[in-house]
Design brief:
Shape: globular
Bound molecules: pyridoxal-5'-phosphate
Order of helices and strands: HHEHHEHHEHEHEHEEHEHHEEHEEH
CATH superfamily of one domain: Type I PLP-dependent aspartate aminotransferase-like (Major domain)
Strand content: 5-15%
Number of strands: 12
CATH architecture of one domain: 3-Layer(aba) Sandwich
Strand order of the largest sheet: 2-8-7-6-5-3-4
Structural class: alpha/beta
Largest sheet: 7 strands, mixed
Radius of gyration: 24 Å
CATH class of one domain: Alpha Beta
CATH topology of one domain: Aspartate Aminotransferase, domain 2
């Protein structure tokens, strides 16, 4: 492709993306295709000769687009959001154009230093403790794995890095913690059997006294407790584990405290939501995802540690081919995580924060929280609906309940959700809370307005009427 062709298609693609974003609401939110339908339209061999961009773009629109879920749809209420925004997309375009590989300071000084600066901005925006230092990881799952590995090394005085793990270590998380804790504990050598799932209270938050009991019990059995993962904003219901009492236990028992705030962390840019971080002074590490609620394209996960020296000691490597003359003076982020190669992710975060400003971001997050409160009120006031968990942020857990037995209610709600999603007008997902099938209304898409939430509610009312007939 020559420069002129590149420009032509570049302009065309930007036009297409701009139109897509303004009209994404016209697509069915989730693809109605069945498994194999996309694959059957694609050749089984790579083309021998290069094909035109014209043809490629046509195929993208005809064969790929109908098989996508539209995460930027204003009626996206599933999982948690994965927002983008115009400024983030433009930064990603620059990042792709430059194609820098930012593994060490030398391979792009601006990328390394911008990452430091932007993560310090973010730290201040969330009011995280001053002594915490940040690095961008790809995902919260990776950040949690990094925390578990560092906790393992600290618990074994860096022996397991050298000689392998000699004695089982135990990790603690609430029964509502994200599955990335289990994945991380398996990979980091704790073993699935050495995860203790701590019971939760009526608000689905970890009960600190149960944590303490479990730690004492494990010590009595000759096991070595090493790490606690607390969650701010659990995936099922955005429950908030109480950091302060959990932190005190960690301090007393000398356990690493990792805090997973993947979705909820963004809300800490609001002064009125900082209560979640009470006890933050006990945290050894903290992660949240600007790629969820802070309008920054996937992937971008902000990971903070209290003691970077332990992190670096866990991950550092010094092959000759990576040595530079400035290693003693700079941050080489290759030693702050698992991968060597790193994308230039700080740029999109910088663009987002500068273009919206802290107040602009706060306004959007407040609006989502307000919309969730409105939706919660509708649910609570309706005889056939039941609220299933406290609404701490912008997620509402609810179900249809006409008084039939629990098993029948589970089936009823499953059918209810399927019908809602089949309409193509909304997309919601479910969870179970104490065995009860629950719908999750996750409000947090950048373009979601009151009318979208109201339309979703009206659809729910009419679907409920049909199904309860
Ligand atoms: N932790 C929590 C609480 C989450 O809700 C999620 C995803 O929704 C994750 C971790 C995993 O995030 P990621 O996809 O960045 O690994």
């Amino acid at each position: 492709m020559n420069k002129e062709e590149f420009k032509n298609f570049g302009y065309k693609f930007v036009d297409w993306v701009a139109d897509y974003l303004s009209e994404v609401g016209k697509h069915p939110v989730c693809s109605p295709l069945i498994p194999g339908q996309v694959r059957s339209k694609l050749p089984s061999q790579a083309p021998k000769k290069g094909e035109s961009m014209e043809k490629l773009f046509k195929d993208f629109q005809k064969k790929i687009l109908p098989g996508l879920a539209h995460w930027q749809h204003p009626s996206w209420f599933a999982y948690f959001p994965a927002n983008n925004s115009p400024s983030s997309i433009l930064a990603e375009l620059l990042t792709a154009g430059i194609g820098a590989q930012c593994m060490i300071w030398k391979t792009s000084p601006a990328a390394a230093e911008l990452e430091e600066v932007v993560l310090e901005w973010l730290r201040k925006m969330l009011s995280l403790p001053e002594r915490m230092s940040g690095v961008i990881q790809d995902t919260a799952s990776t950040a949690t794995l990094v925390a578990l590995l560092t906790a393992r090394e600290r618990a074994t005085n860096f022996e397991s890095n050298k000689n392998g793990l000699k004695k089982p270590l135990v990790v603690y998380a609430s029964e509502e913690a994200h599955s990335s804790v289990e994945k991380g504990a398996k990979i980091a050598g704790y073993g699935k059997e050495n995860i203790r799932y701590i019971p939760t209270d009526e608000a689905f938050a970890m009960i600190p006294s149960k944590l303490e009991e479990a730690v004492v019990e494990d010590r009595d059995r000759g096991l070595q407790p090493a790490c606690v993962v607390a969650t701010l904003g659990t995936t099922s219901s955005t429950a908030i584990d109480p950091l302060s009492p959990i932190g005190k236990i960690c301090q007393k028992e000398r356990l690493w405290l990792h805090v997973d705030a993947a979705f909820a962390g963004t809300a800490a840019i609001l002064p009125e939501k900082r209560w979640m971080l009470e006890g933050a002074e006990y945290m050894d590490s903290f992660v949240f995802n600007p790629h969820k609620w802070m309008l920054t394209n996937f992937d971008c996960s902000a990971y903070y540690v209290r003691d970077p020296a332990s992190l670096i000691r866990t991950f550092e490597i010094h092959p000759e081919y990576l040595k530079t003359g400035v290693d003693a003076e700079v941050k080489n982020f290759r030693d702050w995580g698992i991968q060597l190669g790193r994308r230039f992710r700080a740029l999109k975060l910088w663009f987002v924060i500068r273009s919206y400003g802290v107040e602009g971001l706060q306004k959007i997050i407040r609006e989502h929280i307000w919309l969730a409160q409105k939706f919660k009120d509708w649910v609570e006031k309706h005889d056939c609906f039941e609220l299933m968990a406290p609404v701490n942020l912008s997620l509402v857990c609810f179900r249809l309940n006409d008084g039939r037995g629990e098993e029948d209610l589970n089936r009823l709600n499953q059918e209810f959700l399927e019908r809602l999603n089949r309409s193509g007008k909304v997309f919601l997902t479910h969870t179970t809370l104490r065995g009860k099938y629950v719908l999750r209304m996750a409000i947090g898409q950048r373009t979601t307005e009151e009318k979208h939430v109201r339309e979703a509610w009206e659809l729910m009312l009419s679907t409920a009427e049909e199904i309860l007939k």
